[in-house]
């Protein structure tokens, strides 16, 4: 069986990748991660100075507690018909405002903590303790590397042969001798008019976070399998003028035959057209052959030691 494969190149991308920036400005008072560390969702990465925000929170809490006491007393007086309803309504309105101010104060304090939005691996630290940062400062990066995505392009002639779930193999010079297996997740529905190719996205499992974001990889995608493929030795193929041919043994003569090549494999070269299964082909001595030249088998040449006769070889 011959597996027809197509080669492509692409760069690995994290399943999720973000630049970590603060939503508020201030001085860095704590850095809670190391470069390359894996963190869980919600983990604190950086803390900014928060003295004024904590003071504002305490003030809002005190105001809210005071208004709650006032509303409690007012409700008691109102039940005894000793307080106008309008005064109670006014206190309740002020209480609602105090609750909103407390919530806002908590939100401002929360902004002083920069949290991981999802589980992943943090990148290089771009800050130091005491640095002043704002919403334009990139503190670090965060990548979800449990799986990586590969996007690549392949020629349009394979459009009908590619579908989701197909196996892909990827390799990188950064990991010599290693092959990483994955599957096709998405296939573009359009052909690029300029390149006559289409995009394919594959996913590679990466549980050990071995593959980093941005890694350049060579990709091999199986687009077909043929059980009845015809293979011949590499040395039997002759290329001439952009065409390929070989000499087929026809009795005691060699017939020059034009062929169409398929996949090149360790076991030989696939012939897609021009050669019948089981044919014998000449593997050595092509330079002395012409179409219709007489030949004798290798075993006969070995018997009579006549080096002038080119050999033949069964496919």
At a glance:
The protein has 315 residues and is α+β, with helices and mostly antiparallel strands.
What separation lies between the terminal Cα atoms?
A: 15 Å
| Computed CA radius of gyration, to the nearest angstrom | 37 Å
**Poorly predicted segments:** 300-315
Spatially, the strands of the biggest sheet line up as 1-8-11-10-9-12
- Tally the helices: 3
- The rough form would be described as rod-shaped
Number of domains: 3
Helix content: 10-25%
Task: Give the SSE string.
Answer: EEEEHHEEEEEEEEEEEEEEEHE
Structural class: alpha+beta
CATH topology heading of the largest domain: Elongation Factor Tu (Ef-tu), domain 3
Mean pLDDT: 85
In the CATH hierarchy, what is the architecture of the largest domain at level 2? Beta Barrel
- Residue fraction in strands: 35-45%
Please describe the biggest sheet, giving its number of strands, its sense, and whether it closes into a barrel.
6 strands, antiparallel, barrel
The count of β-strands is: 20
The CATH H-level homologous superfamily of the largest domain: Efflux pump adaptor protein, beta barrel domain
> Class of the largest domain in CATH?
Mainly Beta
Walk me through the structure.
This protein has 315 residues and is an alpha+beta fold. The chain has three domains: 2-12 and 149-225, Elongation Factor Tu (Ef-tu), domain 3 (Beta Barrel), CATH 2.40.30.170; 50-111, Helix Hairpins (Orthogonal Bundle), CATH 1.10.287; 230-314, conserved putative lor/sdh protein from methanococcus maripaludis s2 fold, CATH 2.40.420.20. The chain has helices at 51-79, 85-110, 298-304, and strands at residues 2-20, 26-31, 38-39, 44-48, 113-115, 120-122, 132-133, 140-155, 167-171, 180-187, 197-205, 216-226, 230-232, 238-240, 243-250, 253-265, 268-273, 280-281, 293-294, 313-314. The protein has a six-stranded antiparallel β-barrel. Strands 13, 14, 15, 16, 17 and 19 form a six-stranded antiparallel beta sheet that branches. The protein has a four-stranded antiparallel beta sheet with strand order 5-4-2-7, with no helix packed on it. Helix 1 packs antiparallel against helix 2. The two termini are 15 Å apart. The model is unreliable at 300-315 (pLDDT under 50).
């Amino acid at each position: 069986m011959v597996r027809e494969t197509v080669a492509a190149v692409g760069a690995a991308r994290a399943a999720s990748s973000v630049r970590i920036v603060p939503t508020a400005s201030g001085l860095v008072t704590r850095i809670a991660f190391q470069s390359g560390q894996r963190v869980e969702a919600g983990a604190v990465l950086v803390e900014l100075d928060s003295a004024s925000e904590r003071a504002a929170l305490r003030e809002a809490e005190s105001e809210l507690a005071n208004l709650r006491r006032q509303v409690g007393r007012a409700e008691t007086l109102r039940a005894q018909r000793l307080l106008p309803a309008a005064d109670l309504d006014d206190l309740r309105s002020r209480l609602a405002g105090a609750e909103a101010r407390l919530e806002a104060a908590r939100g401002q304090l929360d902004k002083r903590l920069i949290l991981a939005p999802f589980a992943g691996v943090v990148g290089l630290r771009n800050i130091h303790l005491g640095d002043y940062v704002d919403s334009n400062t990139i503190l670090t990066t965060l990548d979800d590397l449990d799986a990586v995505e590969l996007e690549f392009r392949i020629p349009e002639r394979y459009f009908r042969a590619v579908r989701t779930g197909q196996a892909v193999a990827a390799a990188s010079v950064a990991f010599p001798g290693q092959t990483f297996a994955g599957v096709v997740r998405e296939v573009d529905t359009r052909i690029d008019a300029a390149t006559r190719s289409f995009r394919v996205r594959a996913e590679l499992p990466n549980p050990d976070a071995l593959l980093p974001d941005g890694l350049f990889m060579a990709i091999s995608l199986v687009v077909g399998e043929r059980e009845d493929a015809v293979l011949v030795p590499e040395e039997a193929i002759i290329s001439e003028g952009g065409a390929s041919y070989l000499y087929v043994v026809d009795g005691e003569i060699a017939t020059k035959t034009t062929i169409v090549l398929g996949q090149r494999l360790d076991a030989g070269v696939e012939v897609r057209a021009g050669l019948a299964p089981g044919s014998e082909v000449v593997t050595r001595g092509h330079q002395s052959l012409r179409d219709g030249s007489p030949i004798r088998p290798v075993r006969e040449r070995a018997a009579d030691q006549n080096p002038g006769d080119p050999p033949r070889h069964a496919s």
